[in-house]
């Protein structure tokens, strides 16, 4: 719900440096908008850095042929193979067939 700015002389409270101060909406609103814009810029920069790191990781995995194992034994790979599945010969206790 958007805020109604019809009364800029209305009193409000703002925390500044750990101290709650009483101001008017007219005094506080510009600072709140600047803080919001600053936070949006920080979020945008962090998202850009995240995407750059994702590309770096993908390039590193491709360069060194690294495949990440998932918790269920599957490998993050397009080949469709499962690693860690038990294939081979079952062997009983020693001397069981004698």
From TrEMBL:
Similarity comment: family membership: Belongs to the prefoldin subunit beta family.
GO BP term, example: protein folding
Keyword Iron: no
Composition bias, Basic and acidic residues: 72-84
Keyword field contains Ribonucleoprotein: no
Keyword terms: Chaperone, Coiled coil
Superkingdom assignment: Eukaryota
Classification via PANTHER family: PREFOLDIN SUBUNIT 2 (PTHR13303)
Molecular function terms from GO: unfolded protein binding
Coiled-coil ranges from the UniProt annotation: 36-63
The protein's name: Prefoldin subunit 2
Region annotation Disordered: where it falls in the sequence: 72-98
Entries under InterPro entries matching the protein: PFD2, PFD_beta-like, Prefoldin
Species per Swiss-Prot/TrEMBL record: Nyssa sinensis
CDD domains for the chain: Prefoldin_2 (cd23163)
């Amino acid at each position: 719900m958007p805020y109604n700015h019809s009364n800029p002389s209305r009193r409000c409270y703002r925390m500044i440096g750990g101290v709650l101060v009483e101001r008017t909406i007219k005094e506080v609103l510009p600072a709140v908008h600047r803080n919001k814009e600053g936070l949006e810029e920080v979020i945008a920069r962090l998202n850009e850095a995240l995407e750059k790191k994702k590309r770096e990781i993908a390039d590193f995995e491709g360069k060194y042929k690294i495949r990440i194992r998932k918790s269920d034994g599957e490998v993050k790979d397009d080949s469709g193979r499962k690693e860690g599945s038990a294939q081979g010969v079952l062997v009983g206790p020693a001397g069981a067939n004698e």
